Records
---
Amino acid sequence: MNTVTVSPKFQVVIPKEIRLLAGIQPGQKLEVFRVGGVIELVPVDDIRSTRGSLPGLITEIARDEDERV
């Protein structure tokens, strides 16, 4: 089991094994969630990395003529 200690500045160090398994890199952003009594850290993906992740999604919208600018 991996344990961490909260510093006086409320900082924690993610253990190396966990960082490697999760692919966490220095400077990467993580979202923090509290679910019941559990704190979760979830890596935030760069929006550009999601490009093409929804194949077949129709992105064109039919518009009425009066809505065009």
---
Amino acid sequence: MPGIVIVGVQWGDEGKGKATDLLGERTEWVVKFNGGNNAGHTVVIGDEKYALHLLPSGILSPGVTPVIGNGVVVDLAVLFDELEALEARGVDTSKLKISSSAHVITHAHRTLDKVQERFLGKRQIGTTGRGIGPTYADKISRVGIRIQDLFDESILRQKVEGALEQKNHLLLKVFNRRDITVDEIVDDLLSYAERVRPMVCDTGLELNDALDRGEVVVFEGGQATMLDIDHGTYPFVTSSTATAAGAASGSGVGPNRLDRIVGIVKAYTTRVGAGPFPTELFDEDGEWLAAQGHEFGTTTGRARRVGWYDAPITRYATRINGITDLVLTKLDVLTGLDEIPVCVAYDVNGDRFDEVPVNQSDFHHAKPILENFPGWSEDITGARTFDELPQNAQDYVLALEKISGTRISVIGVGPGRDEVIVRHDLID
């Protein structure tokens, strides 16, 4: 079973990095297939905590070949800052491979991202301002700059000229900002060309060859299902395909090579940025959950919005992705609650919806229909088997499994690398 996709079920920050790291010791390849440095993974190894933004989490596992696929947009300054920071801590980064077809984020993209978001005023979508959306927009408009363009200065200059023409009109005439010169973009990109050259290859070919050899390849998604450009809470979404389908298109392998789809879901729900969030809490429970779960974005540092577990969203994500296994993270955060509410359906203007409404307006006005489950007070961070959990914690997990429609194969009981309970192996 060599092809394993890891995707977020909710709005991100579910703990995908930990799941990838859990598999990392038994896999040969880990691929990041979408997004850029607009999302982060936090991995705790012993007393060491690593915050990764652009690099795949597998880079922390010796013996794993980390890959940045063609579906990713790359900020080269961030890439090398992150590599240097890991190398300073003794992490071997020499095996990193980057697709020659991955698109490059430039200063122009970052500038546009920030000014366009401010221009929206009250209609802001909560972008990170890192140039992700404008880079994907250029990709779709066929004026993007790819990694391979850095190795031919003449082609690079022509492409930058074409890409900047419209952007400078916008900056000057709409946003009252100075124009950006071709030279400053070209010179900046060329300064990274020789450093990145040894990492660049046909990653799709390498991955297919690895799968042909029977090697285990983990495809690591950035963001999450509810932020997917097609299936998320549009327009409050990211600009890439964050679902399992993106693993094939964003890495250059066929969908028939994907054998298992693993969904990562928190024992409660969070999201960063604007947009609908039916179970969001605005009371002391929300403050308590945020504090217990240390709910601040790995990349942005922004406080996350917090709410109860949403079963309709999990069922929706299971259908969209074809999820075969769930990894339930942060179960330990709920320790100490007398009762734990779970959203089992929605009330929209008096009508019950057991599934996510097809109409975005209905979803925006949805109120959670909650079912309460008994909590527990025992410390569960030392549990390594399901039977070692308190009975109420076991009952909570089994209830989530039943109403979510997918088996819960792994349970996170703490932030550490080994603080997990494995009910079903994700590889065998």
---
Amino acid sequence: MPATIVLGAQWGDEGKAKIVDFLGAEAEVVVRFQGGANAGHTVKVGDQTYIFHALPVGGINPNTQCIVGNGVVLDLAAFFEELDDLTARGLDMGEGRVFVSNCAHVVMPYHKALDQAAEASKGSAAIGTTGRGIGPAYRDKIDRSHGMRVMDLMDTDRLRERLDTALAEKNQLLTQIYGAAPLDAEEIAREYLAFAERLRPMVTDTSILLNKALDEGKRVLFEGAQGTLLDVDHGTYPFVTSSNTTAGGACTGAGVGPTRIDEIIGVTKAYMTRVGNGPFPTELHDEEGERIRELGQEYGATTGRARRCGWFDATIARMSARVNGLTSLALTRMDILDTVESLKVCTAYKLGDEVLEEFPADPRVLDKCTPIYEEIDGWCAPTTEARSYDDLPEKAKAYVRKIEELSRTSVSLISVGPERDATIRVG
């Protein structure tokens, strides 16, 4: 595993953290390359449950360096809260373990205020953001006028100058457009200068650090947040996140070339879920959907929102394999389906009289599609004790083979429970 990308192959919440934690035991460096504190990654180790928002999940391995790459928008309040919590729980997060890119952009208080005010103003047309300021932070990054980078925090005069300029505009938006209260520059400056001093020992050019690690043959794991269908370019726009969640985003968000990547694993549930608004062709609006939600406890780690549930969609799996160049799939939450007698897999879409075997880029088209299903017998037997592929019930193995066939991608890992050892290597 010299250089492996692990990313979501659906709408996020696929169980990436479990797979990253499992593979992270073999990694020497783990890097987050996009997103921010809107991502919630849950890992169970023994009797401990950890929820990561800002740091890489791979930090559970005490021998791993943790890197926050340049593609991340960093919420420093969440970052330090998480760092302190992990330290209090016995993880060594001291000097030399955590590094932050000097080029990473910072989520400022006005980003959160604008995110929440804008979302509230949209009513039923709201996108369904987490209100963590992620979109406005990326907007400032691309706009270039008011983006605040980690390196800006390291210079007091530079921070004050950029903060004053940004607030001159942001306070007008907050007060005149949204009717919200203005923010105080002095208060923000004090808070973020304190953050800067604590952050300073961790700040470096992480692109140099990562490429040096790869030159030395170290095992590097690139940890994605959200999922392929939330990619700002390839997802169900505008119901997406504000970054590139796909494999290409790992290269730009970490500062490594694509030729350095050896393996790309797409994590997918044995069924489908989605949080927030937007089209979802295989969504179940009946008791079966509610049953899967309760069996899987499908509620967001960041927001607590109930996830929408549906059958596995092979059309989406093929699209994810295509845009990411997946080398394999990691199939999670197989155990949630242990008591389901009859399963369905979407093989293609029906649009009027037309059959679509490829995922449509236009969400308005997707919203009009109806799934074409293939019905498959459930295995109706426990999988939670399985530790090898041969341990799985025959009908469970048939389900795995069907997913491989329809997605045109082999399955390399199968998760049958939240525990680290409830993971099966295939092949």
---
Amino acid sequence: MEGLINSWPLFAMIPIFYFFMIRPQQKKQKEQAAFQGSLEKGKQVVTLSGVIGKISKLDDDAVITLQLDTKTFVKVTRNSISKEMTEALKTSYDLG
């Protein structure tokens, strides 16, 4: 009985870890997946490496072609588009 009483802090940490670490991470992953699913041609985005471009072509579920300049295009994977950085850029520079 005494061992159970002494181990209550360990049991109390499980919900704390869930609510402060696991749950927010799952929410962030769902938001990122929804963002990546909503990508469309003409949208200004930022990649995880910081490359800013406009979506010019959605080849399939995995590859996106970004237009960096008038004649400069680069292919990236859909997973490399960052929701956080795109929203930060949009609010900082008011991109469309």
